[in-house]
Amino acid sequence: MSCRELFPRAVIGGYLDTAAEGLPAPGVTEAVAEYLREKGRGTPGRLRHFGIETEARALAADLLGAPVTDTVFLPTASDALNILAASLPWQAGDRVVTTDLEFPSNLLPWLALRERGVDVQVVASHGGALQLEDFTAAIDRRTRLVTVSQVSYKTGAWFPHTEALGDAVHAVGGVLCVDATQALGRCPVPLAGVDFLMASTFKWLLGLHGAAVTYMSPLLRERFALAGVGWYSVDNAMAAVRTGTYDLKSGAACLVAGMPNFAALYAITASLKWLLSLDLAVERKRADLLTRHLRERLAALGLPLLTPEGDDYTSGIVSFEHPEGEQIMRQLGEHGVVVWGGDGRVRASVHYYSDESDLQLLVEALQKVLAR
């Protein structure tokens, strides 16, 4: 049985919007039902909840290739970014380097730091992709943080230089942050050189809303002054004397202030088990080929592509510019094709449950829609 046959919506055909909303992996529905059964038991069900949290962290660490002590789940990628922004020792004159290909969640926390005298430098993309030399030109002795998406939500370009970028950032004492929301579960996500990373679980990881895989390196943990503290982030929160000092949990566990979203963790446990059961190298190769085919077909229609050409940049996303992107999205939906449209562009995305028939449906529907 192919991956596609395990996803009822994918079998219908024309689903090309994982970059916005992934289809739940096999086992997710049953996992959420298990959560509800355990929740229905009241307090005794908590033992299973905590066990699932432990299992989910181990599976996420396995997918990342990271120690489990450095891997946790936060409520959202936006929460992870805001915790990072609030927990570094900023001074007036410090610099953040970001890019023009970032989702708002990876821009707004840094723009807010301008009120504290922090300079925000935006690296410009070229042809839909980012170049290492443009980053290094923007990095100076004032740079405290560089942040970049592993895959751009806008153009779909995969960024191949995180390790070299990390070296450049560390040379001036800075931190490298990577938003892997549009990559993890679909594309390689190398951790070499990365200090802080997050990825939402409801897209390519095929889970639910309400959780984000978050990684923090041991080196960053040593210099991290956690801004928000809760009972879940400290050791022995229920000690007899709680009005004096406290000790944060070791590793990334200190980032979690309160009770996790257990329903989302049950779901991601199931989806990660399924993803890790695949031969990911084989699945990625097949999906990458589909993505390149999609780009070629859209280019043949004469559409102004945002997605750069070249294997080094291939992810699961192909985008093109169009002033009526939202209208095209709606009209494609009338033909049974689901993509994302708005912000002057249309975006299609290819995951492991996609096949050539989806591409054909999109191209045929696009030809009809554009002919109007």
What does this 3D model show about the protein?
GO terms for molecular function: transaminase activity. This is Aminotransferase class V-fold PLP-dependent enzyme. Residues 15-361 form the Aminotransferase class V domain. Keywords: Aminotransferase, Pyridoxal phosphate, Transferase. This protein has a 7-stranded mixed sheet, with helices on both faces. It has a 3-stranded antiparallel sheet with strand order 8-10-9. The protein folds into 2 domains: 4-16 and 279-371, Aspartate Aminotransferase, domain 1, CATH 3.90.1150; 28-275, Aspartate Aminotransferase, domain 2 (3-Layer(aba) Sandwich), CATH 3.40.640.10. Helix 2 runs antiparallel to helix 9 (262-277) and helix 3 packs across helix 9. 37% of the residues lie in helices and 13% in strands. By secondary structure, it is of the alpha/beta class.
| Largest sheet, spatial ordering of strands | 1-7-6-5-4-2-3
Provide the residue-averaged pLDDT.
96
Number of domains: 2
User: Strand content of the residues, in percent?
Assistant: 5-15%
Reported by name, the CATH topology of the largest domain is Aspartate Aminotransferase, domain 2
Structural class: alpha/beta
Overall geometric form: globular
Poorly predicted runs are none
Q: What CATH architecture label of the largest domain applies?
A: 3-Layer(aba) Sandwich
Strand tally is 10
DSSP helical segment count: 12
Helix share, percent:
25-40%
One letter per element, helices H and strands E, the order comes to HHHEHEHEHEHEEEHHHEHEEH
Radius of gyration: 21 Å
CATH class of the largest domain: Alpha Beta
Largest sheet: 7 strands, mixed
The CATH superfamily of the largest domain is Type I PLP-dependent aspartate aminotransferase-like (Major domain)
Distance N terminus to C terminus?
Answer: 39 Å
Protein name: Aminotransferase class V-fold PLP-dependent enzyme
GO molecular function: transaminase activity
Keywords: Aminotransferase, Pyridoxal phosphate, Transferase
Pfam family, one: Aminotran_5
